[in-house]
Fold this protein.
Amino acid sequence: MNAPFSKLMRKEGVSRRDVVVVSATLVGGSLMVGCSPADLMSAGSKVDVGAFGPFIRFDPDGAVTVLSKHIEFGQGNHAGLAALVAEELDADWARVKVMHAPANAKLYANGGMGVQLTGGSSAISNSWEQLRKAGAGARAMFVQAAAAKWNVPAGEITVKDSLVSHAGGKSAPFAALIADAAKIAPPETPVLKDPKTFTLIGTDRVRRKDSLIKSNGTARYTQDVQLPDMLVAVVAHAPRFGGKVKSFNADDAKKVAGVVEVYQIPTGVAVVADTTYAARMGREALKVEWDLDKAENRDSKTIAAQWRDIAAGRGPSDLKWEAFDSKGDAAAAAGGKDAFETTYDFPYLAHATMEPMNCVAQVDGNRVKLTHGSQSPTLDQLAAAKIVGTLPGSVEVETLYAGGSFGRRANFQSDYVAECVHIAKKVGGNRPVKLVWTREDDMQAGYFRPMVHHAVRVTLDKDGYPATWRHRIVSQSIMKGSPMPSKGPDQTAIEGASGSPYLKATPVVDAQLALPEAGVPVLWWRSVGATHTAFVMEHTIDQLARKAGKDPVEYRRALYVKAGPEAARHLAVLNLAVEKAGPTSTPGWTRGVAVHESFGSVVAQVAEVKLVDGHPRVGRVVTAIDCGVAVSPDQIAAQMEGGTCYGLSAALYGEVTLTGGAVDQSNFDTYRVLRMNEAPTVETHILPSANPPSGVGEPGTPVIGPAVANALLAISKTPTTRLPLVSAGA
Amino acid sequence: MTATLDINGRTVTVKADPETPLLWVLRDELGLTGTKFGCGMAQCGACTVHVNGDPVRSCVTPIATLNGAKIATIESLGGTHPLQKAWVAHDVPQCGYCQSGQIMSAAALLAQTKSPSDEDIDNAMSGNICRCGTYQRIRAAIKDAAGLASAPLVNAPAATTAANEIDAEIAAASGSTGRGANP
């Protein structure tokens, strides 16, 4: 999931005009003179919009289908999105279904981004008014239809659980009024409910719609697609990033029963077969010679050492530093003998979704059909259109469930989607091709959370609070080279340090970012910049509190007050978490606290930790979140539970390393992840709020790492300076 | 080459090399796609099926080893198994991709251990990875299905959702997979 689009649009003023330029770059400028981006991306698209608009359809029996512009890959957004419609429509929740919308940026763009993309924990927040208006508009059409039919004033009609009623005794279910309602013009400005009158939003009735089909094996993922005449493809990739095919010999591969053809494509050599197993056997028999002259050939240790050199001022002279959140006299922030000083190293991380990357594509002349778990239909359309030489709208996308993403399935190159389209273009004739990546392909193909280094130097005032704060961040840039370059420092590298209440509370700040390059593809990874900034800020604060001889919770409270009104939510969630955790920890366990804001929500956690055989074990985790109006409280709890596991997995074990440019990890035996016997028990408490909803899918991830490190600091007095906490194989 | 297998109580004959892992025969030959591919080396458990009642990773089980064995996949549970009801009641799944394997591991556990302890659950379930991190709800759902009291989740309505509501939900969806994006 990713913040960048919305953040750029909001914070840095990337205009819609920029998006046009971007689009022009991608598909060839002459196509869209005078077109808006949405026009461009939907050109050629054939989407039927019914009488009730692009988001709502009725079955003849009155059942409601909500079309979701956002993919469901675990976040529970389909439940919340459907609830927004059902609440205003006054539909019977038990008879509301959800399906993925087709690709059409004009109808289904993410409100904060201008493109159809799920990310930045924004599904509910960007749909909050849009879908409620859609529901309210449809409701008004039913009310008008009933009023006309019964010859009564519309104001005397009520709707409840899909039943339209008049005080005089007449009533009719939606099913009986659909035809009449469809003829009514939708209201231009639908009237929304007062949130105080909500009967569905915010209740425990907002439950997932897909739990059963995800418990009986019938939910359909890309991996499960079977189409007549379909071929399965696997691809031999270069052993190092940036490698190219020099030559290949497919003689033995073609002898494998079931192998149909072998093609060279830009990313390697594709073996196409009747079955997955045959394709894999064919690839094993394939001989490829690689040109690795321009490939990344360094060890990750070498890259990490370079990052440290840069932070220490020993980097190349032409490397640019960009300031953020800086104020006061930078020379004063240079510190002195008494300054607190530390550094942090963060490794590359793989997303390691349960379902490895895959895609089904069909190419028929200048038309393309994609069937897969598309996180950004718009980006996928642009990538496919460029390969085939067609309009993006001629690329049809059927979005399926995806077995996790955590950011991986949306990138500016649409990497594996493009790979599949290249193969399907070679095959041609509209014949479906399913590209299957093995776990090893998935683990080694990159698009990792960047390797990041932080260097922090802080001096304290006479009361023990930060007087000066010097901060250096060194990272590969996620946004560099993207079609939406950042104006100002790359937000994806600094968010969370930038905007931190601790920097707001410090009179002198000298914070800077450097973005050196490396040949490793990098990408947003659940909670993006916060994956490292939350750790740095929260673990630093605990160390400063100790240096000042103060309690870490009291220290934070004082800093939030100093930071001003914007930190009031931090104070509130911290107080809630501490209160719910109770005065004493579970006997034998030690507590660590952390608080962080991301995607508009603030999360505080109190984590109980103990050492078992020298390794950290996490038990009870009390979580408090302020995410605005809670649309689906149970799914918010689910995301806090899952986000905590995802963040804890990375903090304990997550690490991708390179030797000579080749990725050392290949499967779950070498890329360790959290398992059942290591899972914490997460309690979730939601701060009541009347603010519009903010993010939930990502904010639960970045807080657990520093909470655990802070507990370990209390246990062992040893600060953490690198992640993961437990090295591979330990 | 052909092989005869006993899958979900049916005898089926498939054309496949004897070394082919059961997983690919189930998915590509028989269309039983509820069993998932996750790692290919028995690390993640997404491909778990039962062979003579024991949980087995089908991605590393060649069909040559299955002569006369009784194989059961997620499809054999029918959607009304107590674990599946508990999974729905607790809204366990997130992305859902690992859950067939989780449920098959849990079903084997409950078949052999009626009242599993936390340690039993850890031992039976630690071979199944869930990257969404649904472990806490999996544990609660297993205990629920076993008739053991589990601590209620703070915001989870599961404990208060009437059993007949869950049954109605299952009935509404049975025979149809059209509840999500996938008709």
About this structure: Chain A touches chain B through 82 residues (CB under 8 Å). The radius of gyration of chain A is 27 Å. The first strand of chain A starts at residue 56 and ends at 58.
